[in-house]
Amino acid sequence: MTKNNYHLNIFNKYSTHNIILNSIGVDKIVLDVGCNEGYIGKNSDKSNIFYGIDYFKDAINKTKKSYKDAIFYDLNKIENLPWDIEFDVIIFADVLEHVFYPEKILKFFVSRYLKKNGKVIISLPNIANWQIRFKLLFGKFDYKDTGIMDKTHLHLYTYKNAVRMVLKNNIKIINILCGASIFGPVVKGLPFLRYILATNIIIIGAK
């Protein structure tokens, strides 16, 4: 985790960021795990109070301008947070695929910091996306700086193993959605196509 190559995308209503924003609700105390520069909190309903953790110190300094608090945190070293808070919502937006032990991290934060009946929002890149499938037909599996084939991804997810990971950690699944900026309207009409058209898997769960 060195340079931060990710930025907010809310210009398309079917984008992952928009789906996440619309899933948070109002009057919530939110923990943004891997908060980047605080994009989600800045664009969420103003009644929500955000706390953030991130590996990028420069991003944290920007996040502090709009979040209640934000701190440096290495997810590969699971440690207690400095806040004595049970959160209404915990967000893992394109984070778990970057860490060594995603299941341990998910279990730690949900069991320790999510309020009873609180909500967890998880987004993960969909390795079964049609573009990846097409390239594999020609033997291509090339890593990039961002996106599904981000070279810093340590784990690959399909809908099936993403759901399995969530259920394994005793999280009740409320909804299974997708981020699909290009094919969003198609997936809305034909939800089963999300397995190949979605760029991101989005799971909404409850404790």
Describe it.
It is a single chain. By secondary structure, this protein is α/β, with parallel strands linked by helices. The chain has one domain (16-206): 3-Layer(aba) Sandwich (Rossmann fold). 29% of the residues lie in helices and 24% in strands. It has helices spanning 16-24, 39-43, 57-63, 102-113, 130-137, 159-168, 184-189, 194-197, and strands at residues 29-33, 49-54, 69-72, 87-93, 114-125, 172-179, 200-206. Strands 3-2-1-4-5-7-6 form a 7-stranded mixed β-sheet, with helices on both faces. The longest helix has 12 residues, at 102-113. The chain starts with 15 loop residues before the first helix and ends with a strand.
Summarize the structure.
By secondary structure, the protein is of the alpha/beta class. It contains eight helices and seven strands, in the order H-E-H-E-H-E-E-H-E-H-H-E-H-H-E.
Question: What distinguishing features does this structure have?
Answer:
207 residues, alpha/beta, Rossmann fold, 24% strand
The termini sit apart by: 29 Å
Quantity of strands, as a count: 7
Low-pLDDT stretches are none
CATH top level is Alpha Beta
CATH architecture: 3-Layer(aba) Sandwich
Oligomer state of the chains in this structure: single chain
| Series of H and E elements | HEHEHEEHEHHEHHE
Shape call: globular
- What amount of the residues lies in strands? 15-25%
- Major sheet attributes: 7 strands, mixed
Write the layout of secondary structure elements.
Layout: H1 16-24, E1 29-33, H2 39-43, E2 49-54, H3 57-63, E3 69-72, E4 87-93, H4 102-113, E5 114-125, H5 130-137, H6 159-168, E6 172-179, H7 184-189, H8 194-197, E7 200-206
Parallel strand pairs: 1-2, 1-4, 2-3, 4-5
Antiparallel strand pairs: 5-7, 6-7
